[in-house]
Amino acid sequence: MKYVDELRDGATARRLAAAIAAEADPDRGYRFMEFCGGHTHAVFRYGVPDLLPPNVHLIHGPGCPVCVLPVGRVDAAIELARRPEVILCTYGDLLRVPGSRRSSLLRARAEGADVRMVYSPADSLRIAREHPDREVVFFAIGFETTTPPTAVVVRRAEAEGLANFSVVSNHVLTPPAMAHLLDSPELDGPAAPSLDGFIGPSHVSTIIGSAPYEPFAREHGRPVVIAGFEPLDVMQAIRMLIRQVNAGRAEVENEYTRAVTRVGNRKAQELVSAVFAVRESFEWRGMGSVPGSGLEVRPEYAHLDAERRFGVAVGQPRENRACICPSVLRGAARPTECTLFGTTCTPDHPMGSCMVSSEGACAAHYAYGRTRERAEA
Amino acid sequence: MSGKPDLEAGRVELAHGGGGRAMTRLIEELFAAAFDNRWLAAGDDAAAFPAPAGRMVMATDSHVVTPLFFPGGDIGSLAVHGTVNDVAMGGGRPLYLAAGFVLEEGFPLADLRRIVGSMAAASREAEVPVVAGDTKVVERGKADGVYISTTGVGVVPEGVAVGGARARPGDRVLVSGTLGDHGVAILSAREDLGFGTELQSDSAPLHGLVATMLEAAPGVRCLRDPTRGGLAAALHELARHSGVGMRIREADLPVREEVRGACEILGLDPLNVANEGKLVAVCPPDAAPALLAAMGGHPLGRAAAEIGKVTADERGFVEMETAFGGTRLVDWLYGEQLPRIC
C-alpha cells in the first residue's frame, strides 16, 4: 500500500533502532507515555518493544475513549436503552463494556433493549428519520477526533427539525488529562518513577493542532512529540524524545508533519465550539474528576441534549476492587500486574474497560504481548 | 394458492411450507427442477445410495449471510462450497449433499430461484449432487430472507489420515492462496459501509485441490478451511487440538492489496477475516516442497505459500514475526471485528 508500507519498513526500523540505541544514555532510564490507545495498539501489533534498548520503557496512557468512560456513565447508557421508547445508538466497542453488576449494553440488548451499533453519528440520524415514533439517542464517546462528526449531526438534526433525536456527550479532551496525569502521586510522587515525556496523540492533533500542548510542556517540564500511528512514527518520536531529554529540553515537537499543523483544523474547532461547551469537570475512569476535560451540549441546543431531555443521572457505582484498570489507565501499573488479567478478565469476558477495546492497554497486552510478559516472568 | 408458483413476480407465502399442494409445486418447479437428479426425482423422504469402501465422513453447516448476494457468489453457492469444503478438510471425497431451507414469508421467488439456480450450478461444478432436502417457511420478520443448512457425506480414501490433532513441532504451515477475500467482498457489499472494490469472494469447492495435495503428499497431517475467524482462528484450533504452538511470518502471508487497503481503512486484521475458498495445511517439513508445488499447480492454489511452522509450545500460542522486525501474538477474534472509533 503506497504511503503506508514505507512507514512499516523493517530495514528502516532496524536502522532507527540502532540510532535510538546509540543515542540513549545507558546510565539512565527513559519512561515515555504513549497517551493514545492507537499508539499502544501499534506498539504491540508491530512488536516495537523488541526494537528498543532495555532502558527505554513505554508506559500506556489513558487515551482510549472506551476505557476511560466511568461505570456510572455505562450504567446511564444501559438505563436509557431500557426505556421502551428509546433506540440507543453507539459505537461497537462500547456495547461490551461492563457496567455495574456485570451488565453491559450487549446484555441489555439480549434482554430486549433496542441498542444499535453505528459506524458513524450520521447512521443514528438516519435511524431517527426512519423511526419518527421512537426517541433515538446517540451515545457519543471519543476524544477531539470524534467530536466534530457529533457536532455535525447535532447541527443537522437542528436544521431538519428532527424532534426525536438527541445526543449524550461523553466527549473528552486530551491536554487537561495529560496535565492531570502528572498530578497523580502514583506517577509523579516522590516514590514513583517519573515520566520523562509524552508521545502525543496523532488523530486528535490533526484537529486541535500542536499548540495546545505548548503550555503543558512548559509548565510541567515534559517534552511532547506528536506522532502518527505507524510504527516508524512511534520509533522516530521515541528518538526525538530521547534527544530532548538528553539535552534537557521540554518542548512540543511534531513528528507527524504530514497531517498535523500547529493550529490544527480551524473549521472543525469552530464547529465544535458552536455546539459544545467545556464542562467544569468530567469523571474519567481511573483518574477521577478532571477539571475542564469534558464537553457538554451548549444550552442553545438543550432540546438535542439527551442528558437534559431524559434527566440522565450518573451514579457513583462501586467498581470491582480486584480490577486495577484505574492504575493501568494512569500508567501506574502494567496490565499483567492485575490478578484478574488473563484469568477472570479476558477479551471474551472483560471485567474492566481496558480489556474491552482493542486500543485498551490490557486488550493489547493480551492480544499481542503476553507471550513476552510471561517469558520475562 | 395451489397453482404453479410465479417464479418471476411471486413471493414466498406461508402455504409454501404448509405441506400441501403449494409446497409440492414449489419443490417440483423450483428445487427438483434446478438440482435435477434421480434421487430427488424419486420423491422419497430419504435418498438411498450405495456405501463405498473406506471411512465415511460427514459435515453440516448452516449459512446465514448478509447480503444474500455478494461479489463472487451468493448464499446458494456458499452453502454448497462451505459443506463440500468441510468434508474435504477431513480428507474426504464429498459424494452427496442434503439441503434445508428456511424461507421468510414475503421473500421474492425470483431471488429464491436465483439462489437455488446458483446452488445447483455449484453442486454440478463440484460434482456433488443435492439428493435430499427440506423447506420451511416462517412468518415475515422471523428470518432474514433465506437460511440454508447443508449436510454432506463423503468417503476418506484408504491411507489418508488427516486430523486437527496431528500437527507436530517442526511441521510446516501452508495456505492455498490470498487471505480475507471473502470477508472483504461481503463488507464491500454492505450498504452501511459503502466502500467500492473490484474484489470478489473466493468462494470455491476445494475437494479437487485436496485430492491433488493428498496425491503429492499423502503424509499431510492437518487441513482446515479458515472461514469465520480467518486464518488466526484456524491456526488456534489446530494448535489447541494438537497441543502445539505456531509461528508464522507476516512477510510470507499472501494478502491482496485491496484486502490490505480495506482492512486498513476499517481497522480490521486480514488474519481474522473470513475465507470461503482457501485452506490451511500442516505437513512434515520434508513433504512441504512437493506439497507447495502441487498446490501451486492447481487453479485454486496458484498463490499458495509456506507461511510458518509448528512449534513445541503446549500453551498453544500462535505468534507472528512481523514484517517490521518484531514478534507479536496472533490472537483469536473476540466477538465480532469492529471498526475502530478514532
UniProtKB/TrEMBL annotation, chain A:
<dbReference type="InterPro" id="IPR042243">
    <property type="entry name" value="HypD_1"/>
</dbReference>
<dbReference type="Pfam" id="PF01924">
    <property type="entry name" value="HypD"/>
</dbReference>
<protein>
    <recommendedName>
        <fullName>Hydrogenase maturation factor</fullName>
    </recommendedName>
</protein>
<dbReference type="GO" id="GO:0070025">
    <property type="term" value="F:carbon monoxide binding"/>
</dbReference>
<dbReference type="InterPro" id="IPR002780">
    <property type="entry name" value="Hyd_form_HypD"/>
</dbReference>
<dbReference type="InterPro" id="IPR042244">
    <property type="entry name" value="HypD_2_sf"/>
</dbReference>
<dbReference type="GO" id="GO:0051604">
    <property type="term" value="P:protein maturation"/>
</dbReference>
<keyword id="KW-0479">Metal-binding</keyword>
<dbReference type="GO" id="GO:0051539">
    <property type="term" value="F:4 iron, 4 sulfur cluster binding"/>
</dbReference>
<comment type="similarity">
    <text>Belongs to the HypD family.</text>
</comment>
<dbReference type="GO" id="GO:0005506">
    <property type="term" value="F:iron ion binding"/>
</dbReference>
<keyword id="KW-0408">Iron</keyword>
From TrEMBL, chain B:
<dbReference type="InterPro" id="IPR016188">
    <property type="entry name" value="PurM-like_N"/>
</dbReference>
<dbReference type="InterPro" id="IPR010918">
    <property type="entry name" value="PurM-like_C_dom"/>
</dbReference>
<dbReference type="InterPro" id="IPR011854">
    <property type="entry name" value="HypE"/>
</dbReference>
<dbReference type="InterPro" id="IPR036676">
    <property type="entry name" value="PurM-like_C_sf"/>
</dbReference>
<protein>
    <submittedName>
        <fullName>Hydrogenase expression/formation protein HypE</fullName>
    </submittedName>
</protein>
<comment type="similarity">
    <text>Belongs to the HypE family.</text>
</comment>
<dbReference type="Pfam" id="PF00586">
    <property type="entry name" value="AIRS"/>
</dbReference>
<feature type="domain" description="PurM-like C-terminal">
    <location>
        <begin position="168"/>
        <end position="319"/>
    </location>
</feature>
<dbReference type="GO" id="GO:0051604">
    <property type="term" value="P:protein maturation"/>
</dbReference>
<feature type="domain" description="PurM-like N-terminal">
    <location>
        <begin position="43"/>
        <end position="156"/>
    </location>
</feature>
<dbReference type="Pfam" id="PF02769">
    <property type="entry name" value="AIRS_C"/>
</dbReference>
<dbReference type="InterPro" id="IPR036921">
    <property type="entry name" value="PurM-like_N_sf"/>
</dbReference>
